[in-house]
């Protein structure tokens, strides 16, 4: 080992989108200031560490993906520790602390971390530090920062206790060690994600705080005349405070311009999830009226000549680029407008202080500048505090420099949340707000995350439409705000809407045979199978579908599949089917009025619809939302779930619908069973565990 064993600890991370890795790197960087050295590895690199023989404390940072799954990089590790033949004392020698990352908008919050934590405990491992669960819904830093703050004392005491135990002879009673008592007396951090329980303002007052760099040489600029803070202005006390800011991350990427030309990499080389397929868009339909609040589009893809397979209920991912005008604007600000089509070679900087530095996997070794910004980097990502800290060094104006320092400091935590995180500010917004900030492209490569493919639910059945795949989406709109002066469309939905515009509004040139073939656009996709959100294996089992708005998408595939099965197997017994659909206006955004066809041919047994914004002259106002309609059908819903062993599917918006539907089901179960709410919640938990209450939701 490169580190002295008595001061070493093992640091493992399991990441899906890079956040867990970034936090692990922050811990690694801070460790040196505490006289410690972190032996850091991705948890997938099991040839570089061995928990079976590990004597030093272990720190694990792990995220959650999908519907509560560990990240892809942790799958082999989780499979290994889940081995049921392992004895209960397999990890009895192991001391560890775990930081889980998640989003409380989703049902299985931090389940990736919880799964690993629970299994390590079952195998005898011991906590030397309390588990932290950070919530991306309110800001990971609200838990991450204080968790890292408390980590160092716990690590030092664990290492000291380990050292004393190693030096003791058999006659010495380990329990008499004052450090043993001290270890158990370590104060417990309240790691709730509730903001009111975190007194972060107290953290900055510690005189011995060595976790972050104490800034003594900042010239305090006079506060702006504005009485209200904003992205570019601060007010007391932040504007008059000495600041604790993060350690400056070491640079580790350099670019070398090349005169030789060539070809950019194929998009498939950017994807590690599996095989990609380039498929033509054969049909586009606008499902909403022009005056609807949201624009919903249906696209049909031709997958006949590919090996792409799916089931109704599955999802798939679309590989999309950043907005071309935003990329050109970024190149202009960086002073690289004339070099966008030049090829560069991306290499690790010689002599970098970054441990284990390597070229990010999502960045090709050789490509054009424009290709990197278009296809590789998430330029819309909300900048992390480490990125803001790095941008400070690229900013020449003293006032702008100070404000960026404030936004990444502990004292400016609430300003960061309000003006950057909650306002969805991206790099371009920052560069407009702080015009003297001129970062290098290498800095962007170091700090911007991978441009993620966007996931969509399949809205078709391969049995019903062989060789075709359909999906439905709303074109996402981000209105302008004080922190973001321009409105924007979603990265993928905006691109798709622009791409298929000729199919929606064909010009005279595309109506003739010659123009038709040239107007066919292709997109790159790859499958993302859903392990649970499928039709019941037994067709006689009844099921209920709840899908307002575009949440109806997978249920169209369900119904198409069921209709085809009924045609092919007239002798089969099919269970009843319920669909609860809602939208704002019946005449503007009732996405699939052909649902009546499923009702008429018997595929759909019950169709319940509601319209939240339509006015009514009825004496008793009709229900507005799907959860209200569910309550009106309480007896039938309870019968399907409790008596008939049916399934319950929910698809759509998490924040404004799925939780309300869950609450309605609890109320229904409580009322129909004549049980208290707690008992009803237990029943719902059992249904979830049995995969009979299933969700496909997004925030």
From TrEMBL:
GO terms for biological process: cobalamin metabolic process; folic acid metabolic process; homocysteine metabolic process; methionine biosynthetic process. The keyword Flavoprotein applies. Its EC number is 1.16.1.8. Its cofactor is FMN; FAD. Residues 274-536 form the FAD-binding FR-type domain. Residues 9-152 form the Flavodoxin-like domain. It is found in: Cytoplasm. InterPro entries: CysJ-like_FAD-binding, FAD-bd_FR_type, Flavdoxin-like, Flavodoxin/NO_synth, Flavoprot_Pyr_Nucl_cyt_Rdtase, Flavoprotein-like_sf, FNR_nucleotide-bd, NADPH_Cyt_P450_Rdtase_alpha. One of its GO terms (cellular component) is cytosol. Pfam families: FAD_binding_1, Flavodoxin_1, NAD_binding_1. Keywords: Amino-acid biosynthesis, Cytoplasm, FAD, Flavoprotein, FMN, Methionine biosynthesis, NADP, Oxidoreductase, Phosphoprotein, S-adenosyl-L-methionine. It is an enzyme of class 1 (oxidoreductase). It catalyses: 2 cob(II)alamin + A + 2 H2O + 2 H(+) = 2 aquacob(III)alamin + AH2. GO terms for molecular function: [methionine synthase] reductase (NADPH) activity; flavin adenine dinucleotide binding; FMN binding. Signal peptide: none annotated. It comes from the Eukaryota. Forms a multiprotein complex with MMACHC, MMADHC and MTR. This is Methionine synthase reductase. It comes from Pteruthius melanotis.
């Amino acid at each position: 080992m490169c580190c002295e064993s008595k001061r070493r600890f093992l640091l493992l991370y399991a990441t899906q989108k890079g956040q867990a890795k970034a936090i692990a790197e922050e811990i690694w960087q801070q460790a040196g200031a505490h006289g410690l050295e972190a032996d850091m590895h991705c948890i997938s690199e099991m040839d570089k560490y061995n928990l079976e023989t590990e004597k030093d404390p272990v720190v694990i940072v792990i995220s959650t993906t999908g519907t509560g799954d560990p990240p892809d990089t942790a799958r082999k590790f989780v499979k290994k520790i889940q081995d049921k033949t392992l004895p209960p004392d397999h990890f009895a020698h192991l001391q560890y602390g775990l930081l889980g990352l998640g989003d409380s908008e989703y049902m299985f919050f931090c389940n990736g971390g919880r799964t690993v934590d629970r299994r390590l405990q079952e195998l005898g491992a011991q906590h030397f530090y309390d588990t932290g669960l950070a919530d991306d819904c309110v800001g990971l830093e609200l838990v991450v920062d204080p968790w890292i703050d408390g980590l160092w004392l716990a690590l030092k005491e664990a290492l000291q206790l380990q050292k004393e135990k190693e030096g003791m002879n058999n006659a010495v009673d380990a329990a008499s060690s004052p450090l043993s008592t001290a270890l158990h007396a370590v104060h417990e951090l309240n790691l709730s994600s509730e903001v009111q329980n975190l007194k972060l303002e107290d953290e900055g007052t510690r005189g011995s705080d060595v976790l972050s760099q104490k800034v003594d040489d900042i010239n305090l600029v006079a506060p702006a005349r504005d009485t209200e803070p904003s992205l570019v202005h601060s007010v007391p006390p932040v504007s008059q405070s000495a600041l604790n800011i993060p350690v400056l991350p070491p640079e580790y990427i350099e670019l070398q311009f090349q005169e030789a030309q060539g070809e950019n990499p194929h998009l498939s080389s950017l994807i590690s999830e599996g095989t990609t397929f380039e498929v033509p868009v054969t049909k586009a339909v606008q499902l909403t009226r022009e005056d609807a609040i949201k624009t919903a589009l249906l696209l049909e893809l031709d997958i006949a000549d590919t090996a792409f397979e799916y089931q109704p209920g599955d999802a798939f991912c679309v590989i999309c680029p950043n907005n071309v005008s935003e990329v050109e604007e970024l190149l202009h600000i960086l002073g690289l407008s004339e070099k966008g089509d030049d090829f560069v070679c991306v290499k690790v900087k010689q002599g970098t202080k970054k441990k284990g530095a390597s070229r990010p996997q999502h960045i090709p070794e050789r490509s054009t500048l424009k290709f990197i910004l278009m296809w590789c980097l998430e330029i819309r990502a909300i900048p992390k505090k480490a990125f803001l800290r790095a941008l400070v060094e690229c900013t020449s104006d003293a006032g702008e420099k100070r404000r960026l320092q404030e936004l990444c400091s502990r004292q400016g935590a609430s300003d960061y949340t309000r003006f950057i995180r909650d306002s969805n500010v991206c790099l371009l917004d920052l560069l407009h707000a702080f015009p003297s900030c001129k970062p290098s492209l290498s800095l962007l490569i170091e700090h911007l995350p991978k441009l993620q493919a966007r996931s969509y639910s399949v809205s078709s059945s391969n049995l019903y439409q062989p060789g075709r795949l359909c999906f439905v989406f709303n074109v996402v709109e981000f209105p302008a705000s004080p922190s973001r002066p321009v409105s924007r469309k979603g990265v993928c939905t905006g691109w798709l809407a622009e791409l298929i515009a000729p199919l929606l509004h064909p010009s005279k040139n595309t109506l003739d045979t010659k123009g038709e073939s040239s107007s066919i656009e292709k997109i790159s996709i790859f499958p993302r199978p859903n392990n649970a959100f499928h039709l019941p294996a037994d067709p006689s089992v009844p099921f209920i579908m709840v899908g307002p708005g575009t949440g109806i998408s997978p249920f169209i595939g369900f119904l198409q599949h069921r209709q085809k099965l009924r045609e092919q197997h007239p002798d089969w017994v099919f269970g009843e089917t319920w669909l609860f659909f809602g939208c704002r206006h019946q005449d503007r955004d009732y996405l699939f009025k052909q649902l009546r066809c499923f009702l008429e041919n018997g595929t759909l047994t019950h169709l319940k619809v509601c319209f939240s914004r339509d006015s009514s002259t009825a004496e008793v106002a009709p229900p507005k939302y799907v959860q209200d309609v569910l309550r009106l059908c309480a007896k039938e819903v309870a019968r399907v779930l409790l008596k008939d062993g049916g399934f319950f599917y929910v698809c759509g918006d998490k924040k404004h619908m799925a939780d309300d539907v869950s609450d309605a089901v609890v109320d229904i179960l409580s009322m129909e069973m004549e049980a208290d709410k707690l008992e009803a919640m237990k029943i719902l938990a059992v249904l979830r565990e049995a995969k009979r209450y299933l969700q496909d939701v997004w925030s």
